[in-house]
Amino acid sequence: MCTLKPDVLLTETEYGMALLDQKRAEYWTLNPTAALVLQTLLDGHGAERAVASLVERYEGVDAETAARDVSRIVDDLSSAGLIAP
């Protein structure tokens, strides 16, 4: 579960999502995998549900790989100052 920082806007695109940090005037683009993870977390679910969503959506992705991906995505978005836990 997380929230966007107050100065961050989000929009869905045909390729995933785009985030705009209005404070720094920087855009970030998320591929469909990262978009699914972020949307799951923004919907109030935890990392475990985000992992399950990836496993359900992408054939051949195991829980261990999905867990690493979720952790990396959350770390990257947090480090960039786009989300708050």
From TrEMBL:
Name of the protein in question: Lasso peptide biosynthesis PqqD family chaperone
InterPro entries attached to this UniProt entry: PQQD, PqqD_sf
Organism: Streptomyces melanogenes
Source lineage: Bacteria, Bacillati, Actinomycetota, Actinomycetes, Kitasatosporales
